[in-house]
Amino acid sequence: PRPPPDPRDHRALSGPSGAGMFSDRTAPGADVQSLWRSARSARCEAKTCQTGKISTAEAAAQSHTARDAAVQTEQSKDAVQDFQQEVQVDYTGLLSFLQRVEDAVIKELNKNWKSHAFDGFEVNWTDQDETVSCLHTLSYPEAQNQNLQVTSVSWNATGSVIACSYGRLDNGDWSTEKSYVCTWNLDRRGLNPQHPDLVVDVPSSVMCLAFHPSQPSLIAGGLFSGELVVWDTSRTEDPVIWRTGMTDDTHTDPVYQVNWLPDTKHRNHARLLSVATDGKILVWREERDGRLALAEGFAIVAQQVPRSTRLKKAAWGEAAVGVTSLSFSHFDADVFVVGVEGGYSLRCSALAQAAALPRPGGSVPLRAPAEFAFSPHAGPVYSVSCSPFHRQLFLLPPSSRNLFLSCGTDGQVHLHSMLQTQPLFALQLSKKYLFCVCWSPVRPLVFAAASGEGVHLFDLARSKQKPTVSLKQSMSDCPVYCLEFNTKHTRLLAAGDAAGTVKVWQLSSDFTEQGPREMSHLEQLASEIMD
């Protein structure tokens, strides 16, 4: 027999003789069962979870029984029964009681019907605000950087714009120091307290301001140089429309107060009144060429002022005539009160015809208006304020319709009647200077005072001995030099201080809403003190 072919011999596999040995066939596939899958299925495991299934059950309550626990104590059954029973009323006894007191009740009702205890009383259903809060804190950083002080504040005719003047009231070279007049419209959207709506550069220190009583854009100012200037705040390019200039009629000392006066001859025009420490009280009229011309004038002369034993004799002749403040009576338009550096308050008449001592220069002769001197302060008088309630006071005796306030460097506030020398009362308010005092425009018994310590609000219906509220203008004891009530928005009070800040205080309703029979209370107060 032949041996099998050698596998290494390719001819044995691919040659013609080997073609019948091999052919293509399709064999059935092999299947291997997975023991791992069958084991997981038997244990009910999910392929997407690595842990076993967690059994859950409903457990809405932790106890088998429930009870109502709405109250902390149990109500007895007897109390429930007593409550459900009808209330027993002794109608016979009630009738007997009413018959016994009938006459007494009718008598008291008749007395109440005839009583006038609540005459004039009006119920106020609005919420009472008993706090005084600071509404705005206004300043001009450039003026503060120069250490300038707020010397005066004034509200315009609409009551929405507040103006302040910057200058110096302490030691310094006032004559060459640049100053400013700034205004803010408190009704303007986006009010910036440190960015005034208008800034007017003034070459001399501005000592006082006054808005026109009916034209909201006109404001007058008195300067350290003795000049008087009127600005129109609606003119942004050149707001100066009138000025006195430096003439023989101009004040030779700083102007400490300026007031607008109605012009009786020309209704559309107004006159300006200015007072200064040179002793002059001058009235100016406007001219077409933008000039303020002197119309008439007064002078406080030393012969009209009593010699004060509290002042040095060497300085009296000069100090006594310096006028620092003025206030017109609201009862008689020809009567006004002035405060002088000599410590006196003087009642004056605009109808006076006596000539003052002749002075060199001047286009108009000056008259001597002083008629009556009141008991003095122990130092210069810085502010006087006549009571503004002339219409109501007209019906009251003269003792209360001629009231005015004064304050000065002695730290006292004097309440005076124009009919007597001695004050109705003198209140030692502060150990520091008092710079300003002002009656409320809506409350006959309320006034405010500015001191070296802050702002003080008085309600004489509460106390005649101490302030009702004392307000700190700043964290430090910063002197407050000026203040003014807003006659349109009567809850607002503006105050300017030595730090160059103006604060607008919002008063509580206690200081702005007049109580029943308050005018009678004022008359009673004046009568009691005078007696």
Automatic annotation (TrEMBL):
Q: Does the keyword Transmembrane apply?
A: no
Primary localization: cytoplasm
* InterPro entries per UniProt: Dynein_IC, WD40/YVTN_repeat-like_dom_sf, WD40_repeat_dom_sf, WD40_rpt
Compartments where located: Cytoplasm
Top-rank taxon: Eukaryota
List the Gene Ontology MF annotations in alphabetical order: dynein heavy chain binding; dynein light chain binding
Identify the keywords attached in UniProt to this record, alphabetized: Cytoplasm, Repeat, WD repeat
Question: Which parts of this chain are annotated as the region Disordered?
Answer: 1-28
Q: Which residue ranges have biased composition labelled Basic and acidic residues?
A: 1-12
This protein's GO CC annotations: ciliary plasm; cytoplasmic dynein complex
GO biological process terms on file: intraciliary transport
Looking up PANTHER family in the UniProt record yields: CYTOPLASMIC DYNEIN 2 INTERMEDIATE CHAIN 2, DYNEIN INTERMEDIATE CHAIN
Q: What is this protein called?
A: WDR34 protein
